[in-house]
Amino acid sequence: MVSVLFVCLGNICRSPMAEAVLRHQLREEGLEERVRVDSAGTGDWHAGEAPHRGTRTLLADRGISFAGIRARQIEKQDLEDFDYVIVMDHSNYLDVKNLAGREAELHRFVDFIPDTEYKEVPDPYFTGDFEETYRLVEAGCQGIIRTLREKEEL
Ligand code: 4NP
């Protein structure tokens, strides 16, 4: 089974949003059992917490489940356990590289979004704009499913 880990800073806004959205899209296509999806933060401040209210409201409004999602900090072992480690911004990239050592292969979430000028997924914890982040997350998760299909991992 192919596995995907989304990584952001706090693991309460962007990466749990991506976790919930990807799982939702997979379920809609009957592919939920084929992919293991998880998320983690580079920081540990919110460990054990449910997603941020802004993320919860946005997902609930769209009927997307976030049941059971709790924040946790990324561990070195995650880099061996997951096939795709996908970071939300440049600072996440550097932090995970630092944790991982040079050999680890990381992916940037924006690289799965077709025709975007965004270089990072904006952090709604600071921008307050959960909708903007959601639009990118939705398009990127569709891109991830497309990529997995192209690579015949689904
Ligand atoms: P996230 O957003 O990385 O998308 O979960 C943040 C959440 C919390 C904090 C920073 C970013 N924080 O500083 O507590």
UniProtKB/TrEMBL annotation:
Positions of the Phosphotyrosine protein phosphatase I domain: 2-147
Family matches, as Gene3D superfamilies: 3.40.50.2300
Transmembrane annotation, as ranges: none
Keywords: Hydrolase, Protein phosphatase
InterPro entries xrefs: LMW_PTPase, Ptyr_pPase, Ptyr_pPase_sf, Tyr_phospatase_low_mol_wt
Positions annotated as active site in the UniProt record: C8 (nucleophile), R14, D123 (proton donor)
Protein name: protein-tyrosine-phosphatase
Species of the source: Kroppenstedtia eburnea
